[in-house]
User: Fold this.
Amino acid sequence: MTTAAVRAGARPSSMAQALNRALRDAMAEDPSVHVLGEDVGALGGVFRVTDGLVKEFGEDRCTDTPLAEAGILGTAVGMAMYGLRPVVEMQFDAFAYPSFEQLISHVARMRNRTRGAVSMPLTVRVPYGGGIGGVEHHSDSSEAYYMATPGLHVVTPATVADAYGLLRAAIASDDPVVFLEPKRLYWSKTEWDPEAPEAVPAIGRAAVRRRGTSATLITYGPSLPVCMEAAEAAVAEGWDLEVVDLRSLVPFDEETVCTSVRRTGRAVIVHESTGFGGPGGEIAARITERCFHHLEAPVLRVAGFDIPYPPPMLERHHLPGVDRVLDAVARLQWEAES
Amino acid sequence: MTVLEQPGSYRPTPPPAWRPRTDPAPLLPDAEPYRVLGTEAADGLDAGLLLRLYGHLVRGRRYNAQATALTRQGRLAVYPSSTGQEACEVAAALALQEQDWLFPSYRDTLAAVARGLDPVQALTLLRGDWHTGYDPHEHRIAPLCTPLATQLPHAVGLAHAARLKGDDVVALAMVGDGGTSEGDFHEALNFAAVWRAPVVFLVQNNGFAISVPLAKQTAAPSLAHKAVGYGMPGRLVDGNDAAAVHEVLTDAVRRAREGGGPTLVEAVTYRMDAHTNADDATRYRSDAEVETWRGHDPVALLEQELTARKLLDEAGMAAEREAAERMAADLRERMNQDPVLDPMDLFTHVYAEQTAQLREQAGLLRAELDAAAEAAPDSPEGTQR
Ligand SMILES: Cc1ncc(C[n+]2csc(CCOP(=O)(O)OP(=O)(O)O)c2C)c(N)n1
Assistant:
């Protein structure tokens, strides 16, 4: 894939626009790419990520489906079996749950159960995470469910450039990709690495967003800006933090993470989803297995509480913020001295 | 002979006595929505009932306007208005008896209020201070349900359980036209029919699921037709005709109460406002269409009937409008007060007995709040205990 297409138009200035551009470019380049979901047509999706696609490519390529998530993903399975590349939109994290039967029992294991004869080149886009004041069922961090299902790739961009590049990579992938879109970053324009070339990031490659020596913050998606801010604030305390943005939860870039942790000797994993049974536990276990002799402190996790996602007026108490990250970093230092 | 031994056949050959079920008699819904207002049938209507419906409609309309205004002031995170659909909301509430249960969706705040719920409690979910602002058992109103159609099987289960216990309880479950496409809708109808559960399903067909018009949702002649395949009657009613909706729902509730099993009611109506305040309705529908429906307004339809029958005059209307204003003023005033929240509530109701892990996490938050209170003793955070 070249990046000519993205250069042809105006530079996307927000993540939602970058995703829109990625869909448009992929559909223009490959007629087998089809977008389907609830309200993806005239409305352009509730987050406007599919804005204009129906005008440009027609209703057969960008389809408003009946309101049925299992039906949407189930028909996408059949479309993929017949050579199309469906890109499915789930309207919100918690509304994807009716489709889990299709995802887990079929999408994820089709290649395996058919000994490689049938692949599932489909992408499931899921806006996820909190911090936008959404009411119940609009703020779940569901990544752990997806990560626990072999056969799925699970990726999540945190920058505008990655939103474009990762979505292009997901659509091009011959395996199913759960593409988690941090909805509170849809309108963010922040580029943490504005110098980086707009190359397509490979699925499975983490990015070091900030170089540092005292400890490594390992994070992804909506928590990246929190960690970047924490790293800046930590300078005042004399801590020089490295920040690793995983981008891809499955496959997991052990190499980048372990290289960093071996250098810094300390690690904190930061994410919104619950700590117990959450992604951080897996990552911490891996770091401990691979880097034990380099560690100067236990691997710590800063996560959302182990509670159902709270109502909007209380969500700020639940979401891990800069202070909670800095407290964890402080604990790392203390553990090291004791 | 077993099934597998029959080449090319799926199921055993029916024995000679086998017949497709023909009971209960004709299930097919009428071709046209049932109407009462403006027809001769209206003459027989009970004046007291009509006036009661009217009062609820007027207050309901005002409630929708007030709640919508509260979203603009940032007092509600979101409000899915039911303006234009008040007749369905009100009839749903009034068709039930005290002991019956209502299973509303997120758009049905008004049905809950018409059933007697405190208007502020009904808005808790949408204000964002808690997910459900009332005790469902106290009011026999299930939590306002956001994931579409998922409350329908609950209604079936509750009604079934009540019957197993020998209680006289009917469950009324509300869903939108879009929600009828979900698997849960089909499963709920099937269970209800097979169990002959005392349930009534009310579909408010307001033409759109956010932006998707009914024609892209279903190829059925009507949503009421869906009942037939499950073996229950389907009724099609004009959802803006409060008297018609009330009559059809009351019939269906009575039928369920008498052991006749479930009914699917489709009320044809229209959502006058956008899906929520976050939606841009101009992207998917024309002003002309909205105007057409404005000419078929549920409040005006009932008002015409009542004035024609001299049951209502200017003074009567003014009195209802005043009552609605008082309700709105009270709502406004109470909603303009910041709710007093205790962040520690985050951990209170996750399990019946708090786990050690949650106690530890609660400790962390407690320490954070104490530190914040010490740093800024006058901030509201410090007083929220
Ligand atoms: C399972 C599920 N999928 C998607 C959504 C997002 N969503 C909220 S309302 C809505 C449209 C519902 O339309 P309809 O059932 O016709 O009810 P109406 O809003 O018109 O009252 C959608 C898609 C949801 N709440 N639940």
Observations:
- Residues 1-7 of chain A have pLDDT under 50 and may be disordered.
- The pocket of thiamine diphosphate is lined by residues A 38, 67, 69, 91, 95, 98; B 107, 146-148, 176-179, 206, 208-210, 271, 275 (CB under 6 Å).
